[in-house]
Amino acid sequence: MVLPLTVLLRTEKVQPPRTRIPALPPGISVLLMALSQVTPSLFLSGADAPLNGALMSQKGITLIVNATLSHALPAHPGVECLRVPVCDLPCQPLGLHFDRVAERIHGNRAGGTLVHCAAGRSRSPALVMAYLMRFRGATLRQAHRRVLESRPCIRINAGFWEQLLQYERRLYGRNTVRVEPEGAGPLGTDQKQTAPFLFNHDATGDLVLTRFSLRCPSSEPATGRAR
C-alpha cells in the first residue's frame, strides 16, 4: 500500500507525535545499494551500481544519468553519461533539468537507462517521476506510486516535491497531490518531528503533502550535503 506523504523540515526538539513513523523496509542498506527497475528499460540506484560494468551490461544500460556534483562518471564501453550537477537540498533547482533528462531518457529507446544519485532516494527518483509524467502520461500521484513500489526507500525532499508539483501543473494544468497549509493535518504545529518525512493515511487514500517552509541551512553551503 502506498501511504500519503507529509514533508517536514524542522529540526527543533519536539514532543512525540501522535502518528507513528513506520520503519524503513527491512534490509534498507541492501535496498540503497540495489538496482531498482521502474520500467523494463528504466532503473534507479545509488552511486555504487553504475560502477559495476558487468551489471550495466547485464541490464542493457546504455545511458547513465548521474544526479550528483562529484560522484565519478564511469567509463563503460557503449555507455553514455549525463551529469545533473545538483545536491540534495530543498532550494536546489532540480526542476531546471526535468525536461532535459526526460528527453534523454525518452530518446534512449535502443537501450536501458540508469538514473542515480548518492543513495537513490531523492534526486534520482524525482527525475524519474518527472520523466514518467512527461512521456508516460502519469500524473504525479501515479508516478510517485510507481517509483515507490519499485524502490520503497525513496525520500524526496520537500523542495523537489514543490518543483514536481509545478511541473505537473505545467504539463496537466492541475495537481493530483493535495497540498495542505503548514500545520494542517494530523499533526499540530507544536508536534512536528525531527524526522524529515512522515507517512500518514488520508481518509480517502489520497497522497497529501503538508507544506512547510523550504530553506537552505544558512550555515551550510549548497554543496555541503550528499554529493
From TrEMBL:
Alphabetized CDD domains for the sequence? DUSP14-like
Q: Which Gene3D superfamilies match?
A: Protein tyrosine phosphatase superfamily (3.90.190.10)
Among the GO molecular function terms of this UniProt record, one is: MAP kinase tyrosine/serine/threonine phosphatase activity
Catalytic activity, as annotated: O-phospho-L-seryl-[protein] + H2O = L-seryl-[protein] + phosphate; O-phospho-L-threonyl-[protein] + H2O = L-threonyl-[protein] + phosphate
| Assigned keywords, A-Z | Hydrolase, Protein phosphatase
Q: Which residues form the Tyrosine-protein phosphatase domain?
A: 34-173
What is the top-level taxon of the source organism?
Eukaryota
Q: Under the cellular component aspect of Gene Ontology, which terms does the record hold?
A: cytoplasm
Domain named Tyrosine specific protein phosphatases: residues: 96-152
Task: List, alphabetically, the Pfam families matched.
Answer: DSPc
SMART domains annotated for this entry?
DSPc
The entry assigns this protein to a family as follows: Belongs to the protein-tyrosine phosphatase family. Non-receptor class dual specificity subfamily.
Q: What is this protein called?
A: Si:ch1073-184j22.2
